[in-house]
Amino acid sequence: MNLTLKVWRQSGPQDKGKIVDYAVKDINSHMSFLEMLDVLNEELIAKGEEPIAFDHDCREGICGSCSMMIDGIPHGPDRGTTACQLHMRRFKDGDVVYVEPWQAKAFPVIKDLVVDRSAFDRIIQSGGFVSINTGNAQDANALPVNKDSAEAAFDAAACIGCGACVAACPNASAMLFVAAKVSHLGKLPQGQPERAKRVQSMVSTMDTEGFGSCTNTFECEAACPKEISVTNIAQMNRDYMQSSLGD
Amino acid sequence: MNLDAKIPSGPIAEKWDKHRFNLKVVNPANKRKYKVLVVGSGLAGASAAASLAELGYDVDCFCFQDSPRRAHSIAAQGGINAAKNYQNDGDSIYRLFYDTVKGGDYRAREANVYRLAQVSNNIIDQCVAQGVPFARDYGGLLANRSFGGAQVSRTFYARGQTGQQLLLGAYSALSRQIGAGKVKMHARTEMLDLVLVDGHARGIVTRNLVSGKIQSWAGDAVILATGGYGNVFYLSTNAKGCNVTAAYRAYKRGAGFANPCFTQIHPTCIPVSGDYQSKLTLMSESLRNDGRVWVPAEGGDKRAAGDISEAERDYYLERRYPSFGNLVPRDVASRAAKKACDEGRGVGETGLGVYLDFADAINRLGEDQVRARYGNLFHMYEKITGENPYQVPMRIYPAVHYTMGGLWVDYNLMSNVPGLHVLGEANFSDHGANRLGASALMQGLADGYFVIPYTIGDYLATSSGDKVSTEQQEFKDAEAQANQQVDKFLSIGGKRSPDSFHKELGKIMWEYCGMARNEAGLKTALEKIPALREEFWENLSVPGSGADFNTTLEKAGRVADFLEFGEMMCNDALLRTESCGGHFREEYQSEEGEALRDDENFCHGAIWEYSGAGNAPTRHREELEFEYVKLTQRSYK
Fold it and tell me: Measured between alpha carbons, how far is B392 from B394 in angstroms, rounded to an integer?
């Protein structure tokens, strides 16, 4: 199939950036979306032009590196799918496809489709952990965990930190990302001692990093490639409220 | 080259305890005076950086990804082994040790493997305490499953995302230390060189992948946890960024590289679909717990799987290996798949595939139960192939997955270059010639959480304690070299991209140094690789500049190293005239087509020493002694 790509090109953080059109030809429907971009990039390099920069690594939907808006939707049109797992069989000959970076104040553009998501790391650094030094643990089976709680904790822990939730949100809020971590640890006995402190500290960092507020539009859940539920946000709000009152 | 493995004396079960007592320790108040540079933030790197910072060391950690959470450990699916014996099925530290030595086809060091089995239990405890959501049964206790090469259930898992959950555990521990100011994290920063001062590893040179800045870092010790070199094949289950550069540059600075030809070909990956293919995707070995592998009994049978009756199918693993069946080790399963395809019985458009069929499991357990066990893997398979594995069997084919070879290390995980420590897949120590499933996660975390925190103290306590500065000539020289290489890449002005060279190299490696190797093929590869390398340096195209974010430039550096490294791999494979584990030389096989070891001549690790540009490297040996596990022909029948 042949497609027209309209790709955001921005040479660096200071550049204004613009959409550039590219014609891509003879695309095989078994290719992934990123493999289609590889084909285009090889052509650009052969012409001595700079290829389109985009983040990617594992290409199996788990590392969370890939991050692009495809026709205005984070990771493209398939539900529960990262851009690297989106395949060209989803498109048809003659399609015009817009490819743009995440757009959020807290995720400044580095180049083309590459953005700086280190704000997410700083949120985790402020409390997204259990404070246990290596060597301090008791036997793993000493503390049974109800199977349902363990499963629910896993569902929240499946977050890959890609930032699609922020990119999808009209307010560029990071609530789903933060809530996923707060819920994951909040549902396990190991997470209880720091539960109140954790939610306070992570929410506070989220605010100072420049993410917006949540207005319950739930675009985040629709865009999440791991289908993390917005019920985690409700849980986090509850924890936040409770820990605020407790102070 | 000094290759003293420093294995402690005494009975194997007491070596580690005794050694820990004999190791020198650094007084708590003095630890903060030592700077440790950790390169890599996967399971081994993140766990080491976090644990050392907890102890009080001053740690700098580097990764090329945009966040330490993205290291490729994250993609490990199936699980992590430990000798907990929670299933009461006869497991023990000794059995895990025995299985690992045997699984590695007797090419690993016994003492290291025993220690690995010992600390395996601590790893599970540590991870659970961090909040890793392992699978549990209805009583709330941890669940286990079986993996290849073992007859007990000792694999702990978190659905099909065990690596992700373990890495996020290590990442959270690392993040806690970063937040506390005890680790300085440098993401999007790639190591380009190792710096030696007075023969000791005292620093590294890096390139900031955003600004292009080349910079030196000085420290008291260096830890490489930079993963394996599977991407020398271009197509592998590794992430796109995985590379050999850090390890190869250390080799060029004098570190011995051990057993580079020991590469693991994983039997269950999604087959290649076309030339544009950029990577291969693993389907976890855990699927072989319930999936049955088969091909049509007759060659050239192009009917759909559902139209082939039971009597016309060959469940070749169950037929050839009745006691292990579909759960034979990876090397055995991969070769059996290749054999079936070579006989013309392969399935799918390319004929390079075999079926992994869940129909029996779905009949026995119901679709829901199968979904609960493998749902995410089935989902991933459908995404990639467009086929529904609940209805038609999966098609799988072997692919490069893991590299057992790596930088040589002693019992303390220190290379022959004093101060240079190597952890995880980047070292060679524990898996011999073949790694068992669910043992990579175990080794990465064992090295980082429970070995290096003890052994690095001994090195630091016994080293000179002199401080070095990045103003010293050794650093300036290494920086100048790194800058020259960047300038060179940008100035060639040829026609071909780094990826096009990488693909061509990969095809050579897969054809001649892949699942089966022979003398003629390896010699062919040894002619083709230098020719390709020559073209690379004359006809490479790297657009853009060195002073900003330039992914083509990053790739050029990695491919340049693979083009040299591939040659060393082929040489290693050529000179090891035996078959063992993942290294299968067609000339050396039993009548039944199994790998035939030559213990008399090759019961050793082969360690390569760099002898300068243009000179053939020197091959050294570390003789392996087996006191506890008797050397026998591996049998899984």
Answer: 6
A46 inside 8 A of chain B by CB: yes
Alpha helices in B359-451 (DSSP H): 359-365, 367-385, 440-445
Q: N- to C-terminal Cα distance for chain A?
A: 61
Task: Determine contact, residues B65/B554, Cβ cutoff 8 Å.
Answer: no
Nearest to B34 by CA among B50, B19, B48, B53: B53
Q: How far apart are CA B547 and CA B556, in angstroms?
A: 15
**Minimum CA–CA partner of A136 in chain B:** B126
Beta bridge partners of B35: B58
pLDDT in tens, B562-617: 999 999 999 999 999 999 999 999 999 998 888 999 999 999 999 999 999 989 99
Tell me the C-alpha distance between A54 and A65, whole Å: 9
Grouping H, G, I as helix, E, B as strand and the rest as coil, residue B342 is helix
**A145, two tokens:** 């965990």
Distance CA A183, CA A187 (A): 6
Of A158, A67, A20, A41, the residue nearest A76 (C-alpha): A67
Q: How far apart, in whole angstroms, are the C-alpha atoms of residue B572 and residue B567? A: 9
Q: What is the pLDDT of residues A71-98, one digit of tens each?
A: 999 999 999 999 999 999 999 999 999 9
Task: Provide the residue count of chain A.
Answer: 247
* Alpha carbons A132 and B130: distance in angstroms, whole number: 7
Distance CA B530, CA B550 (A): 26
ipTM for the assembly: 0.98
Rounded Cα distance between B205 and B216, Å, is 4
Residue B94 to residue A191: CA distance in whole angstroms: 34
Which string of b and e fits B457-469 if b means at least 16 CB within 10 Å? bbbbeeeeeeebe
Q: Which residues pair with B156 in a beta bridge?
A: B80
Q: Which of residues 270-289 of B touch A (CB under 8 A)?
A: 273-274, 276-279, 281-282
Q: Cα–Cα distance between A83 and A65 in angstroms, integer? A: 10
How many angstroms away from the CA of B206 is the closest CA of chain A? 19
Query: Which domains does chain B carry?
Result: 266-400 (3.90.700.10), 473-609 (1.20.58.100)
Chain A interface includes B141 (CB < 8 A) = yes
Instruction: Check CB contact under 8 Å for A150 and B135.
Output: yes
For chain A, list the domains and their CATH numbers. Answer: 3-111 (3.10.20.30), 118-246 (1.10.1060.10)
In the block, tokens 């594992």 appear at A58
Burial of B99-121, coded b for 16+ CB within 10 Å and e otherwise, reads bbbbbbbbbbbbbbbbbbbbbbb
Radius of gyration of chain B from its Cα atoms, rounded to whole angstroms: 24
CB contact under 8 A, B240 and A57: yes
d(CA B349, CA B329): 27
Placement of tokens 């924890």 in the chain? A239
